[in-house]
Each structure stands twice: as structure tokens, then as C-alpha cells.
Amino acid sequence: MIYEFEAEVWVSGGEGAWHFLTLPGEVGQGLKTLRGPAHNFGSIRVSASIGDTVWKTSLFPDRRLGTFLLPVKADVRRRLGLGVGDTVRATIEVLI
Fold first, then answer.
1. What's the N-to-C CA distance of the chain in angstroms?
2. Residue spans of alpha helices (H) in the chain
């Protein structure tokens, strides 16, 4: 399964904290059936890409919004010159 979406980079916490993209609600709804077991916090393994930059990570459920969060690694942000508030087009492919 492959999903494309646009989202804004945001940060959880202060300097050195995690940076995320929040998946749109319709993408989150499509992924809800793929949640892992409870001991994995419902995470889903994916290959993510922004432009030509690809990385492997896990989506994490956001129960408050009813969707998932995509962590954007520091190395990816540096390579692409991304900062908080930037809007990007991302692609995720679910790894089964």
C-alpha cells in the first residue's frame, strides 16, 4: 500500500525533540486496519520519502486526532533543508 499526502513539519517538545508530519485523516483511516499488536503501540512499519530522500521508520498512532504521525529524522531534515512549518509532499509505503 502506497499513500501520498501533503503535511506541515511540526515539533514535539523543544530543541532536539522529535519532528513529525501528521497524516491526513483519510490516509489515517485507510491505515487503521493495519495497526500492529498492542505491545508495538499500534505502530506501522513504512518506507517514507520526500523528494528523492527515502528512509525507513514507523508511523505512530495519534489517538487525539484519530490518525498517524510520521517521524522525520534529523538527517532527512538536514538533507532537505526542512524546518518547522515547512509543507512537504511525502509518500509512505507500508512494509509488511
1. 9
2. 25-31, 74-80
32: CATH: 2.40.30.100
Q: Are 23 and 58 in contact (CB under 8 A)?
A: no
User: Which pLDDT belongs to residue 74?
Assistant: 94
Write the single-letter amino acid at 15: E
Q: Structural domain of residue 25, as residue ranges? A: 2-94
Cell 499526502 maps to which residue?
5
Nearest alpha-carbon partner for 2 in 85, 91, 82, 71: 91
Instruction: Give the C-alpha separation, 52 to 44, whole Å.
Output: 22
Q: Which amino acid is at 10?
A: W
- φ/ψ bin of 93: left (φ > 0), alpha (ψ from -120 to 50), beta (otherwise): beta
List, for residues 32-81, the tens digit of each pLDDT value.
Answer: 876 655 546 788 999 999 999 999 999 999 989 999 999 999 999 999 99
Q: Whole-model pTM above 0.85?
A: yes
